[in-house]
Give the backbone structure.
Amino acid sequence: MKKFLTVILFALLYTTISAQNINVTKLDSLFTSLADNNKYMGSISVSQNGKSIYSKAIGKADIETNKNATPESKYRIGSISKTFTATLVFKAIDEKKLSLEQTIAQYFPNVKNADRITIGNLLNHRSGIFNFTNNPDYLKWNTVQKTREELVGIISSNPSNFEPNSKAEYSNSNYVLLSIILEKIYKKPYQDILTEKIIKPLKLNNTYYGDKIKLDNNEVNSYAFTGIWIKQPETAMSIPLGAGAIVSNPADLSIFIAALLEGKLVSAESLTTMKTIKENYGMGLTSIPFYDKVGFGHGGAIDGFTSLLYYFPSDKLAVAITSNGNNYGNNQVLIALLSSYYGKPFDIPSFKELTLKSEELDQYLGNYGAANFPMKITISKKENVLIAQATGQGPLELKATAKNIFEFPAAGIVLEFNPITKQMILKQGGGKYIFTKE
């Protein structure tokens, strides 16, 4: 669900901004509020030109032992691992061990369309290979160790989703296969390749290929919030390989993404190729706009862990977010961090909630439109809960936080109604839009 976020970000693309001093006090207040209201657990790092300008850790590394998270805590980073893997593939390309155009037939003859799927197709998710983590039975065996042969067998057993290179569709299978290809060409385990070519040269002391979570090694457990924080099962790290098995922390991730985007890990030609976005995907990288700035990086999710990592080359700004439990979106945390750095406004959610009667919501119901907003928003209700639904998007259940004010905290959306003038103000990510009831 986009939750209006993409539209807001692209709307902000055309306004010029310049860097400011980061607002530490306001950011601290945001994270204190998130922690106090059981909305977020995790660690954050913002660095500029290689120097840390803000770091924060909130929540618990382990709830059972009441162990607090610290900036040094280590998290499973999920699909940010793909950026590491893509970097290793392009190193192999720079070393003339692979090419983007070669097919994968010699490595995986049993994969559907292997003779037409290229290394490049795997990198930018244009292979058509079914995403094995979408299998209905995946969560029945994801905590059990698998061999490389078993993984390839699972991936090969599924039909192709589409013709190679005809479109883009995200698939973890692509990066599992890339990990195995790296092992075949270097004749060593993926973790050894990762250590030799990225971790040691960059001195990433808190980054490595994961195993069972070890609290005594400053690693953290992950949680989901259902009124209380519930510990989540651990995916066996032999399954995601270079698609999602790396452990790190925000400080190390910031060093890595800066080194990559500054051309210190792969050739200039390879970096340009990685950054070339086609149907939302580069090769191991995605891009996001923020006003007139553009950042490159990736997000990740595995078990109850979520993460974001982006680098803005124009300001040499790296932002890394790792979470082991949240019901407040990482996108909203990212917007707050960027807004603080660039001197843009952002709101601290109140997380208060009023209980209203169903009939009290009637004054807000209807269709709303705004001249400077590309979608209409329909306001409806379900019993005593107000619902907002933008054109082409899913419904959002809103919480009443004050008279005529409703919020969807996970996406940082605030709606303020004026029933007398029949207007509604939408606030998100520093944007403000005035809607009128039709």
